[in-house]
Amino acid sequence: MDYKYDETYKRATSENSWIRRITMRKRLDNICREIKIEKSHRVLDIGCTGGILQHLMSNHCSGVYGLDINHHILKITCIKGKYICGDAMRMSLKSNYFDVVVCSHLLEHVPSIHHCLKEIDRISKLGAKIFIIYPIELFRGSSCIPDVLLNGQKLSAIRKIHLHKLSFNKLKNFIEGTNLRIVKHKIIFALLPMHMIVIAKQTEAKKLDYETAPNSLVGQACPFTVNPLRMNPEDCLTKKAKRRKE
User: Fold this and answer.
1) In this predicted structure, what is the pLDDT of residue 183?
2) CA-CA distance, 59 to 222, in Å (whole number)?
3) Ramachandran class of 3: left when φ > 0, alpha when ψ lies in -120 to 50, beta otherwise
4) Which of 38, 47, 83, 224 lies at a 20 to 30 A Cα distance from 100?
5) Which of 7-16, 90-99, 178-187 has the lowest mean pLDDT?
6) Domain spans of the chain?
7) How far is CA 129 from CA 17, 83, 135, 240, in A?
8) CATH code of the domain occupying 7-245
9) For the segment 54-85, what is each residue's pLDDT rounded down to a tens digit?
10) DSSP-derived secondary structure for 149-200
């Protein structure tokens, strides 16, 4: 399957879905109970969609960023925050920069979990905390059936939305190839039960240019690297990304 953001994904994961809004708030409430946010922290929400995490954390920390490949939802996001339109497997962000990284219901959507975790490793500071949340599924895509049906999509769309059926052991194997270490794994409830893995970065990542990610993984998913529509997050961008923007 080609890695391509398309209209099916856009409609099936619409922020107009009341189920999606409720589940997002509940899962992010669980994250906030695990994080002791300081004003100096830099937080990145990968796959931020409508920016609910930024809304929850903006009163505690000014350095909250959101990255999403869906430029349509970023255009209509109207809450406080700093937004970047980009690919989670090829982020134009500085290395060793973020104190907290949240990856909520993202990894099941990306073609290469390995490259996504490598990028999370690269952009995270030594001692950073990473929160990975993913659904409990009987089969691949089963957790997005309500969204698909409520948005008038065919049931076959679930296979276009979820590219992986995740498990703790599968993610553990991917994480073992990075500088990240699992410190907690638990089940949380946000209408439906889901997994949450808390990870710490224990060693310094090697400096790696984001452009070393294979071009074959990028495709046509992101029409522009940096989203110019909202607040400017230039302080976290790499020099190459800044030059590209200029």
Assistant:
1) 92
2) 30
3) beta
4) 224
5) 7-16
6) 7-245
7) 30, 20, 20, 26
8) 3.40.50.150
9) 777 777 787 889 898 887 777 766 554 578 88
10) HHTT--GGGHHHH------HHHHHHHHTTSSEEEEEEEEEEESEEEEEEEEE
Q: Which of 31-40, 103-112, 163-172 has the lowest mean pLDDT?
A: 31-40
Match 């979820």 to its residue by tokens.
162
DSSP the chain: ------HHHHHHT-TT-HHHHHHHHHHHHHHHHH----TT-EEEEET-TTTHHHHHHTTT-SEEEEEES-HHHHHH--SSSEEEE-BTTB--B-TT-EEEEEEES-TTTSS-HHHHHHHHHHHEEEEEEEEEEEE--SSTTGGGHHHHHHTT--GGGHHHH------HHHHHHHHTTSSEEEEEEEEEEESEEEEEEEEEE-SPPPP--GGGS-GGGTTTS-S-SS--SSB--GGGB-HHHHHHH-
Q: Is 44 exposed, middle or buried (0-12, 13-18, 19+ CB in 10 A)?
A: buried
Q: Which residue, 30, 10, 81, 6, is CA-closest to 51?
A: 81
Q: What is the mean pLDDT of the chain?
A: 76
How many angstroms separate the CA atoms of 60 and 41, rounded?
9
